Amino acid sequence: MKYSHESPFYHLTEMRGEGPSYPSYYFRFKIKNEGKLQAEQCEAVLEKIWEKDAGGNLIEDKIFSPTSLTWAGTKETHLTIQPEREIFCDIGHIHHPTREERSVYYSNDRSLDANDRLYGFRHTGFSNTITNSFSSPGANPSNLSKEDNRKSNFFFEFSQRFHAYRDCLLPGKYQIEIAVYSANSKRTSKRFKIYWSGNWKDDESEMLSEVVIS
Questions:
Q1: Model pTM?
Q2: Contact 178, 42 (CB under 8 A)
Q3: Where do runs of H (alpha helix) occur along the chain?
């Protein structure tokens, strides 16, 4: 597993759909099948998340549950990798601030303010009080403040998002662990550090100072 803080491990793309197009940065790691046989049913899983507190200590998110990432250019979570073949897997993306994207994770801990309930752990050591109930259409399930809704958060490229645990990172310093599994190969894993300032830059070279993965 490899990541280098340069293209093609990150790239700026123009997202197009039913509405107006908008720019988005994508970040991805690469894995290579160095064996002589094809690696079958390969699955990349985000397994753990830690956040650095004010004292620089890494605090693990005990609520988070391992979740499959999607292979780059697809919506697939499982694929076969041929011998000597290199494949990219998306870690996450940051959309332009004009494109509102909301987290679906919602903490039910009413002792936290609206911003803190996004993750349910800030200043409390990862609260275990959460809810899996779905919000009504048009509701804001993460209960973010208006200020936080205007931010561009780092969203993981999950195949499916859940109300029970986080799907994105607010600005801050983090460490994550990603593992790749295969039906006929040994598990491999790697930890990545992520720094996200929360500041969007249209210029790619400037943006690389605002979000750093190593």
A1: 0.79
A2: no
A3: 146-149, 204-210
